[in-house]
Amino acid sequence: MNNQLRKLQLVQLIILLEVNRICEKHSIRYILTGGTLLGAVRHQGFIPWDDDIDIAMPREEYEKFLSACSTELTHPFYLLNSQTERNYVYPFLKICLDDTIALEGYLARIPMHKGVWIDIFPYDNFPDGKIQASVYLFLRKYFLSAMSVLRNYFPTTSPFRKLYRYCATLPVRYLSDNRLVLIRERVYSHYNTQQTKKKIAAAFSAKTDIMDADIFDAVMSLPFEGFFFPVPVKYHNVLTNVYGDYLTLPPEDKRQNHGLLKIELGEYESMEEIERVLATYNPSIELP
């Protein structure tokens, strides 16, 4: 494995451990998800080529976490979402590490914090009815696309596309930043007062973002890089839905990650410093 990638993974592990500390202190429920869940099950740690960490929370736990961060999250950690960073358009938050850089190519020209991060996804109730589900998915996609256009994430030189984008974003173009985010959050959480069979991650509205509504109810712990973190008891169902035969390694040409353009770890370029910080969370830790 690339030594820089390994150090990046361990720095992300430090962020996860800080999030876990806050969650345990405030009794906030969360689970590993996505490639991080797969890594815990298949590798007892990171997928060797992976370069991020994903965790998930029910919306009500996500709001508790946001509140706890106002007092618990201190330097060098910081919270990145649409309220703390105008140019951040995604409907989930990142916990980042100051004085570091993990640069995704498509964000290179966007002025915003770009520290090493982990993703935290809130899960909202997904409507049972087909028509309601179609409308709900359309609105979720619309807000993500509109905010990406307004923040110039994917610029175009085509006059036709510029006109189309201008017209498509007219319904939200002249809203204040706070109002736009508030309306988006109301759309995402619209069904949370109802009982539904499914939940969906506030992410990109892919089929794989949808899980059974009880996914957070039964949780167990699995080892991940020498520490233990919560995962759903039904992890087999989740991973099969997302990856199919998840225990079989994909061919090398399918082993994808974010393809980061730049990784700068600051003081964490030193493996000794990484190990020192990890030991503050567990003095007897031995890295796999």
From TrEMBL:
Pfam short name (any one): LicD
InterPro entries associated with the record: LicD/FKTN/FKRP_NTP_transf, LPS_cholinephosphotransferase
Domain LicD/FKTN/FKRP nucleotidyltransferase residues, every copy: 23-244
Record protein name field: LicD family protein
Gene source species: Methanocorpusculum vombati
